[in-house]
Each structure stands twice: as C-alpha cells, then as structure tokens.
C-alpha cells in the first residue's frame, strides 16, 4: 500500500499555520504509484493521480479526510491542475487534457476531453466491401492511392504523445485559471484558452 506524505508550501491557504516542510497528513488510498499531486486554490482539496488510471480528490485533509476516487476508462494521468475550486484538468498518456468538475454537493466527475478530435469521414459501404474483397483475394483496387487513411482514426489532436506537464498562465492576481500550457513527450508546448471550450465554475 502506497503512503502519500503531503508537504505543503507556505502559500497554500491553510487554515492552520503549518511550518514549511511539516508533514500534515499521511494517506493510504492508492495501491499504486502516484503521479501528479495538486492543491485546490484554497488548499481545502487535494487531487492526485495514480498509475492505475485513477484520480483521487481528498477534502478536509487536515481533519478527517474524505476521499473520492474516479476510475478513468482510458490511460493514466501524469499531472493535474486546479483551474478553480470546482474544476480541474488532468493530462497524461491519452495525449488529450481531461476536464473534471464538482457539483453543488462536492461530488467530482469526468466532464469531457478538452481537445475535440475530428474523425475523418468513412468511405461508402460499397467501396469498403470491394476493398475488403480485393484484400481477401490478393487483389488491389485499380487507380487507388497508396496512401490509405483509417476511417476511424482520430485526427486533429494538439499533442501526439504523452502530456507530462501542465502549468497555469495567470494575469496578475486572478483566482481562476483561464489559460494554461501543456508540454509532452512529442516536444510540443501548447497554450490553451479554457474559456473558448467550457464555462469555468468558481
């Protein structure tokens, strides 16, 4: 069982005057590696991601921790960013930022992927059938290009490999993160304007 030791800096908005580097809690929630670990702007909620495609949200860490865990349907996350008290962005091996939000009761859920990927339109059923029969009998279609496109392959994503880091881009003393950047193993740095994609709850 993995024990997560939380070390909080002096500007996390703690209700208690903790000294820098002092251990404030030990959580035994995840039986796997923990990747990204982030505090909400107020310091009341902690989020971290596990290698088992789970994300954890923990409230009241200093008192009686109440944890929620969400099982992701796809690949694990590597980093997390709170854009407000009720919204967080997770990035990782899916190469596409994931949006998480809390409702009025504080229950967290997955909303959607941030980077909408376009799917190329599929060819007609007749041409798909003739191509399948040609492959079956070792024949190639006459006049067809050698560059084939998979109809179901998603295209148009900003990142092409694992996203490893997410950084807020604030103006002055903004409490809500409206813009952030991501970087990944594809060597790209992408700047996102969140207001163009979704309404940010406070």
Could you describe the 3D structure shown?
The protein is mainly beta and 202 residues long. The radius of gyration is 22 Å and the shape is globular. A hairpin with a 5-residue loop joins β8 and β9. It is built from one helix and 15 strands. Strands 3-4-5-6 form a four-stranded antiparallel sheet, with no helix packed on it. Strands 7-8-9-10 form a four-stranded antiparallel sheet, with no helix packed on it. A three-stranded antiparallel sheet has the order 13-14-15, with no helix packed on it. About 9% of the residues have low confidence. The chain starts with a strand and ends in a 9-residue tail after the last strand.
Strands, count = 15
- Indicate the overall shape: globular
Number of helices: 1
Low-confidence parts, pLDDT < 50 over ≥5 residues? Answer: 139-156
What share of the residues lie within helices?
Answer: under 10%
- Mean pLDDT, as a whole number? 75
Give, in spatial order, the strands making up the sheet with the most strands: 3-4-5-6
The biggest sheet, with number of strands, parallel, antiparallel or mixed sense and barrel status, is:
4 strands, antiparallel
Which sequence of SSEs, written as H and E, runs from N to C? EEEEEEEEEEEHEEEE
What is the rounded distance between the termini? 35 Å
Strand content: 35-45%
């Amino acid at each position: 069982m993995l024990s997560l030791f939380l070390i909080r800096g002096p500007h996390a908005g703690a209700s208690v005057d903790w000294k820098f580097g002092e251990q404030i809690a030990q959580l035994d929630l995840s039986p796997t590696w923990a990747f990204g670990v982030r505090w909400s702007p107020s310091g009341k909620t902690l989020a971290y991601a596990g290698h088992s495609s789970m994300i954890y949200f923990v409230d009241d860490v200093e008192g009686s921790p109440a944890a929620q865990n969400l099982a992701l349907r796809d690949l694990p996350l590597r980093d997390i960013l709170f854009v407000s008290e009720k919204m967080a962005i997770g990035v990782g091996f899916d190469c596409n930022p994931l949006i998480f939000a809390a409702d009025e009761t504080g229950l967290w859920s997955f909303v959607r992927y941030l980077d909408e990927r376009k799917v190329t339109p599929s060819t007609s059923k007749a041409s798909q059938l003739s191509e399948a029969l040609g492959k079956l009998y070792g024949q190639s279609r006459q006049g067809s290009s050698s560059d084939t496109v998979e109809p179901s392959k998603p295209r148009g994503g900003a990142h092409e490999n694992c996203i490893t880091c997410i950084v807020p881009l604030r103006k002055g003393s903004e409490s809500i993160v409206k813009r952030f950047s991501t970087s990944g193993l594809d060597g790209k740095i992408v700047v996102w304007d969140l207001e163009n994609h979704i309404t940010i709850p406070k």
